Amino acid sequence: MSRLIVTLDGPAGVGKTTVARMLAQRLGIAYLDTGAMFRAVAWSLGEGAWELPQDDLLRALSRMDFELEDTGEHSTLLLNGVPVPAAIRSEEVGLWASHMGRIPAVREFLRRSQRLIAADVSLVAEGRDMGSVVFPQAPHKFFLDADPMVRAQRRYAQLQAMGMDADLDRLATQIRIRDDQDRNRAIAPLRPAPDAICIDTGQTDAAGVLAQILRHMGYD
Ligand code: DC
């Protein structure tokens, strides 16, 4: 059987991870959360690492090895053999990840890691540039979007469910800063691939979004 790649891109808090996990489970394939890769790099190098000299950054990246284990909702991203920690999920680390995402060496390193992972397995790949840059040949591409306030509220509920501190106004500001940075960076900016199907997730819950995606893919 040939490999299947489904790409799911969109801004912060749009519900990509939830839908990617459900879709992967439904299709019986793995899902790759590439935001978690940027977050894990940012978290393990620490605050301000985006200002490191290029050589130091390259040396640090050369010591990092990402792998994907298991499938469906059990898909697990490993960094150097260990599952990435829950601590990467804070909004602060999200902002660090967005800063790291502006650095060409980091993007190149992660693009290579993402393609290496996809060389072996079928995937739902979610992120910012999956359909536009990393897997431009993927047969199924989706771009999820929603109003920033809806996304801030969703993120607020998720962080609370994980037992993490959250402040709605602060979250809304951080989401706007990240949106702006992710959409306007020089390389691989957040935007739909020309052949991506756009879905507004502000109007529907995750099950409704999943149903739309499956319908577009020819499953009912
Ligand atoms: O999806 P997320 O919120 O976990 O992503 C965190 C940050 O990582 C995001 O603001 C920008 C960066 N990122 C990226 O530049 N490219 C990707 N494919 C995924 C994430």
Low-pLDDT sequence parts: none
Number of domains: 1
List ligands, each type once: 2'-deoxycytidine-5'-monophosphate
Main β sheet profile = 5 strands, parallel
CATH top level class name: Alpha Beta
CATH architecture tag: 3-Layer(aba) Sandwich
Stated plainly, the CATH topology is called Rossmann fold
**In one word, what is the shape?**
globular
Radius of gyration: 16 Å
For the structure shown, list the relevant keywords.
single chain; about 220 residues; Rossmann fold; five-stranded parallel beta sheet; 9 helices; about 50% helix; globular
Description:
The chain is α/β, with parallel strands linked by helices and 220 residues long. The protein has one domain: 3-Layer(aba) Sandwich (Rossmann fold). Helix content is 49%, strand content 15%. The protein has 9 helices and 8 strands. It is globular and about 50 Å long. The two termini are 21 Å apart. The structure holds 2'-deoxycytidine-5'-monophosphate (DC).
Question: Helices and strands in order, then pairings?
Answer:
Layout: E1 5-9, H1 16-27, E2 30-33, H2 34-45, H3 54-62, E3 66-69, E4 76-79, E5 82-83, H4 91-100, H5 104-120, E6 123-127, H6 130-134, E7 140-145, H7 148-161, H8 168-184, E8 197-200, H9 206-216
Parallel strand pairs: 1-6, 1-7, 2-6, 7-8
Antiparallel strand pairs: 3-4, 4-5
Helix pairs in contact: 1-9, 2-4, 4-8, 7-8
The structure holds 2'-deoxycytidine-5'-monophosphate (DC).
